[in-house]
Amino acid sequence: MDIRIRAYDSADAQAASAVWNQVVEEGVAFPQMEILTPEEGDRFFREQSFTGIAYDAQSGEIAGLYILHPNNVGRCGHICNASYAVRADLRGQRIGESLVRHCLEKGKKLGFKILQFNAVVAANRYALRLYEKLGFVRLGTIPGGFLMKDGHYEDIIVHYHLL
User: Fold this and answer.
1) Separation CA 59–CA 111 (nearest Å)
2) Burial readout 47-72 (b: 16 or more C-beta within 10 A, e: otherwise)
3) Where does the chain cross the membrane (predicted)?
4) The model's pTM
5) What is the residue-level pLDDT of the chain in tens, covering all 163 positions?
6) In the chain, what are the domain boundaries?
7) I need a surface site. Which of 27, 34, 44, 121 has the fewest CB within 10 A?
8) Residue 117 near residue 81, CB atoms below 8 Å
9) Exposure string for 2-19, b = 16+ CB within 10 A, e = fewer
10) Which superfamily does 3-118 belong to?
């Protein structure tokens, strides 16, 4: 696969929503519980400061995506937040790493100074390893901060990266 990343387009709504919904349905990473219809997904992805689409340059198929938006407002508006989703059948091919690296660059270009993750689930060892590799700083752990799909609570770890 030749993975490239581009800006979201409304024509991506169905495929992007499907990738997003896989993560939501797994119930182990995103805080959202609601599944997006393509129409809701289109609105959601267009509302972000930036939505990046990872796609295979040869087939055009969407492999993953990220959303980037302010983490807060006003005096904290220089801090952004992001979420990443990779198609389940394509995980382990460094697509997530490409998305995070692109996001770091895009956040800086958009004028953000810091990228903060509010809720990296402690059981998400692949994400934790990637964030460590890319130089994210762990701020601390919030015990039982994430409700897993099976009903138990898992710790979350707050991170940041200077842009």
Assistant:
1) 33
2) ebbbbbbbbeeeeeebbbbbbbbbbe
3) none
4) 0.95
5) 899 999 999 999 999 999 999 999 999 999 999 999 999 999 999 999 999 999 999 999 999 999 999 999 999 999 999 999 999 999 999 999 999 999 999 999 999 999 999 999 999 999 999 999 999 999 999 999 999 999 999 999 999 999 9
6) 3-118
7) 34
8) yes
9) ebebeebeeebbebbbbb
10) Gcn5-related N-acetyltransferase (GNAT) (3.40.630.30)
Structure token digits, residue 104:
């770091």
SS3 per residue for the chain: CCEEEEECCHHHHHHHHHHHHHHHHHCCCCCCCCCCCHHHHHHHHHHCCEEEEEEECCCCCEEEEEEEEECCCHHHCCEEEEEEEECHHHCCCCHHHHHHHHHHHHHHHCCCCEEEEEEEECCCHHHHHHHHHCCCEEEEEEEEEEECCCCCEEEEEEEEEEC
Which two structure tokens, joined as six digits, stand for 130?
Answer: 């990637």
